[in-house]
Amino acid sequence: MGRTKRSTFTTKLLHWEYWPTWVIYFPVFFYYLFLSIKARSFFFFSMTNPEMEMGGLYNCSKYKQLNHFPDTFKPITLFVPAGSPLPLVRSRIAEKKLEFPLIAKPDRGERGRGVVLLLDESQLEAYLLKSSVDFLVQEYIESTFEAGVFYYRFPEKTSGVIPSLVVKDFLTVTGDGLSSLKQLIYRLPRARLVADALLNNPAIDASEILPAGTKKILEPIGNHNRGTKFLDGNRLICPELQNFFDALSDQLPNFYYGRFDLKAPSEAAFKNAEGIKILEVNGVNAEPAHIYDPDARFFTGIRTLLRHWQLIYRISLQNNKLGFKPAKAGEAWAHFKAWKK
Which of 2, 5, 129, 314 is the most buried (most CB within 10 A)? Predict the structure, then answer.
């Protein structure tokens, strides 16, 4: 296992997509301080999306945003208050005509924390007992095409821009007819980084031997810290998508900056803006996630993040002229404490 640990360390060291968040955002933090001084408020970003808590930087309700969309453009979603009894949740799932597997996720959470694929009612009960916060139970859409579309619009404009599009490549292994699933996991650098979580997943049989050429998705949750590869999908940006997200963003009151995480039946359907289901909407906390493509360069990614904070600043100033005010320190602190509970 010593060799495995060394290999894991080397993988993380040589690929900046795995570096700690604080390392990546260290230079961005100083730019944020500079912009705060210019804006005369450390919380200027809260004006970017005035209807979202803290502009969507933290402690923002996913359910609140999804509620603005017509049912056609979102999965069936159930809001579950913390402490809800299992019989009540079970009955509400039946009312919504939801069937397992289902996705459970905290209503206020980031970076895939607490997101689980529930295979049956026993796993739902375990999640319910473990969760101390409000969460969502969401229809599981089996399509393997998942993407994140970054979108922004200046308040005085009627149309916006898609500057970033990421396509998510789920963590997958290919069988050789000889090796166990555990052996395949440890041979794949990206899988090796999350091997403990994978092998503790009851849905994975570590001793299973896949037939030669057979592919198996190890992690159906499309988050980078769970092994999903983020690929630069900017080649897919087209007028059809631009028009679709202009119309979709109009459904969100005073929304000007963020990322739509979504699924679609296929890449072709997505390019034609067909069959798109919005899984969640992120605000100021959203990243132009194409920068984490394995072939992307570190300093290019940093420059992109700096440009996006410049956009946040400019949108905030324009909203301030329209009468919106930045959050006060007490409000920001209250949201932060609630977020960290």
Answer: 314
